[in-house]
Amino acid sequence: MTSKVLTIAGSDVSGGAGLEADLKMFEEYGAFGTAVVTCIVTFDPDDSFGHVVEFIDSDVVTRQLESTLAVHKFDVIKSGMLGSVDSALVLAEKLKTNELPYVFDPVLVCKGVGTMVDLKDLFVANLVPLATVITPNLEEAATLAGLEPIDSVEGMIEAAKIIHGQGAKNVVVKGGARLAGDDAIDVLFDGEKVTTLRSRKVNEKLVNGAGCSFASSIAAGLATGLSIQDAVVTAKEKVAHGIAACLDNATGVASLLHPASRTQPSPEVSVTVD
Q1: Which of 131, 133, 181, 242 is the residue whose CA sits 20 to 30 A from 100?
Q2: Distance (Å, rounded) from C-alpha 30 to C-alpha 40?
Q3: Which residues are 207's β-sheet partners?
Q4: Phi/psi at 113 (nearest 5 deg)?
Q5: Strand pairing partners for 7?
Q6: 135 CB contacts (<8 Å, ≥6 apart)?
Q7: Which residues contact residue 99 at a Cβ distance below 8 angstroms, ignoring those fewer than 6 apart?
Q8: Cβ 35 vs Cβ 28: under 8 Å
């Protein structure tokens, strides 16, 4: 049987992040993907490619969500940028009625824009407790956990435990390449065990879509039968290859190449698990 995965996310016309990234990553697992669009991100070439974010009306988001849930029986739901309070609440209500595994990428900030809208309290109250896996980056983890900026593995572990205490079943704090040192580091906490994942930083470029693609890869891995840890490790490998083969573009932030682990794998990529 072919696995089916639904993403609820913004559209990034650059192709590296958002639902475009999610659908590409689902395909890498042989999974069938559909998307609910919450917002559209465009770029202004006359203003240093500054971002313009246009949110989709919550009624339209609701119709999209109800339509796709009626058309398909999904194995996993993944969400990224929700954009508005109303859209987040619509998703929470739907998740409460279906019990599907849910991968929650709690997007609070879009590169180049800053905070979209203050969704922290809403996330903690309504979506974090529903998450099978939540995948905050360092800034998102600190915000959700109510901590000072995180700059160490110890801080990542502390945040992961706090967020788990808010109800998420599994927490992956994405340190990636943002921590000092030679390794890109992520931390997984399942409520009992802390697992640290490390891979060598493959380049110094700022890459758009790494976080989106990591979460969607985890979702596709779960949909196709991987365990939580195997899904996270596989996701880290795929994203690392995608970063190594990233594509330069006019915005100055490179685009992740999603099929890179299959089409042009880097010999520098390997993931160690502690």
Answers
A1: 242
A2: 26
A3: 254
A4: -115, -40
A5: 35, 78
A6: 103, 104, 105, 106, 172, 174, 211, 214, 215, 218
A7: none
A8: no
Closest to 76 in 3D by CA, of 224, 271, 254? 224
Show pLDDT as tens, one digit a residue, over the chain (274 residues): 999 999 999 999 999 999 999 999 999 999 999 999 999 999 999 999 888 889 899 999 999 999 999 999 999 999 999 978 888 999 999 999 888 999 999 998 544 444 445 789 999 999 999 999 999 999 999 999 999 999 999 999 999 999 999 999 999 999 988 898 999 999 999 999 999 999 999 988 889 999 999 999 999 999 999 999 999 999 999 999 999 999 999 999 999 999 999 999 999 999 999 9
Q: What is the C-alpha to C-alpha distance for residues 222 and 115, in angstroms, rounded to an integer?
A: 30
Q: Which residue has 């931390």 as its token pair?
A: 187
- Cα of first residue to Cα of last residue in the chain, in angstroms, is 34
Q: What residue segments make up the domains of the chain, in order of their start?
A: 4-169+207-233
Q: Per residue in 161-196, pLDDT tens?
A: 999 999 999 999 999 888 989 999 999 999 999 999
CATH ID of 4-169+207-233, from 3.30.1490.20, 3.40.1190.20, 3.40.50.300, 3.40.50.620: 3.40.1190.20
> Are the beta carbons of 236 and 199 closer than 8 angstroms?
yes
Partners of residue 18 on adjacent β-strands:
11
Amino acid (one-letter) located at 13: V
- In total, the chain counts a number of residues equal to 274
Alpha-carbon distance of 184 to 257, in angstroms, equals: 18
